[in-house]
Amino acid sequence: MDTETATEAPAQPLIAGYDAVVCDLDGVVYRGADAVPGSPEALQDLVARGIRVVYATNNASRVPTEVAAQIAGLGAPATASDIVSSAQAGAARLADDLPSGAAVLALGGEGVVEALRDAGLTPVVVGDDEGPGPDEVDAVLQGFGKDLRVRDFERATRLLTTGLPWVATNDDATLPLPWGQSPGNGAYVDLLAAALGRRPHVVGKPHPPLYGLALERLGTTAARTLAVGDRIGTDIVGAEATGLDSAWVLTGVDRPSDLVVSESSPTYVIASLAELLMPYAAPVADAGGWRCGAARVTRNGDDLVIERRGAGGIQLVRAGLAALLDARGEGVPREQLRREAATLDRLVDDSATPTR
Q1: Which residues of the chain have pLDDT under 70?
Q2: Same domain, 327 and 267
Q3: How far apart are CA 228 and CA 248, in angstroms?
Q4: What is the DSSP annotation of 312-328?
Q5: What is the domain range of residue 106?
Q6: Neighbour-count burial of 308, counting CB atoms closer than 10 A to its CB (0-12 exposed, 13-18 middle, 19+ buried)
Q7: What pLDDT is attached to residue 356?
Q8: Which residues contact 66 (CB under 8 A, 6 or more apart)?
Q9: Which end of the chain, N or C, is less packed with Cβ atoms under 10 Å?
Q10: In the chain, how many domains are there?
Q11: In 10 A of CB 193, how many CB atoms?
């Protein structure tokens, strides 16, 4: 997390330093079928200010029109051209290496099929017969699909045994569902990798190709583009790998205790998308502790000592994270930092931040 040497918050809103935003979806724009409170309005305001917005998703099973319809239905601005998916990134990778019209096994849902077609390749879908042979397919693009069967993975394995190019849309081990976690595309990638003894080229977050495709779609430079996401291991790590500044938003699943045990340091920590439109007060070192606005935090043994002084929850979280990330850099054991960060987790979960 970047810090400032001055104590005053800048007069300009955070977004003033950027021309475009690459925005994650689940946990940032919506949670399940419902909008994250305030997110549609914030996105409307960003676009009204001339900020370009694209939505980057690792979900390869859905087609862009379906994703855009969900976003627009919640009140946020979105068309199909604003959606950048890992399926599109995978198809673009193969289109760079294969001749136009080359046949590619689409091991996944309709999102994989459409992405290949839009990239000028010929998607081949395994049917109920014996399926395509090695001479009929030039590569395999693997993405999540709810209707995939064991025989589909068997046929893909048979094709890949010959050494065909293999691209995976993403390697997320789990897929969040209303009742909990289900196996994600990464679990099925591992299934094939165990049989093949090799792994695919992965294009989704946290790997750079998806963010790279988003930059192409936006027509902006990395220096003028901000990545926004709620997951440290995908959104923030992916932004760092691509050279993008990042805003970690606390409306999703990850908490301060997840950040302090990672290797990441997001550029900004925000309570909601609405804070992109506000001046950003960064934490500053202050006499053995860290201060953010009216909040001051110091470390005392295994505990964080918090001085609120009327500060809002997000200021306390930023100051506390600055103290813990400073300790991380000094080699304090990660599990100790996780225990100390529990205080900040409670601030988030108890709705101390403005939008939770």
Answers
A1: 1-10, 127-135, 178, 309-311, 351-356
A2: yes
A3: 6
A4: -HHHHHHHHHHHHHHHH
A5: 87-202
A6: middle
A7: 35
A8: none
A9: C
A10: 2
A11: 17
Q: Are 306 and 295 in contact (CB under 8 A)?
A: yes
CATH number at residue 192: 3.40.50.1000
Q: Report the pLDDT value the prediction gives residue 5, as an integer from 0 to 100.
A: 40
Distance CA 205, CA 211 (A): 8
| Segment holding 124, helix H or strand E | strand 122-124
Contact assessment for residue 5 and residue 284, using Cβ atoms and an 8 Å cutoff: yes
Q: Which residues have a catalytic role annotated?
A: 24, 26
Handedness of CA 243, 244, 247, 249 (dihedral sign): negative
The predicted structure's pLDDT at residue 258: 96
User: 143 near 108, Cβ under 8 Å?
Assistant: yes
Residue with tokens 């609405």: 274
Regarding pTM above 0.70, the answer is yes
Question: Letter for the amino acid at 144?
Answer: F
Q: At what angle do helices 110-118 and 86-97 cross, to 10 degrees?
A: 40
For residue 154, give both structure tokens.
């068997």
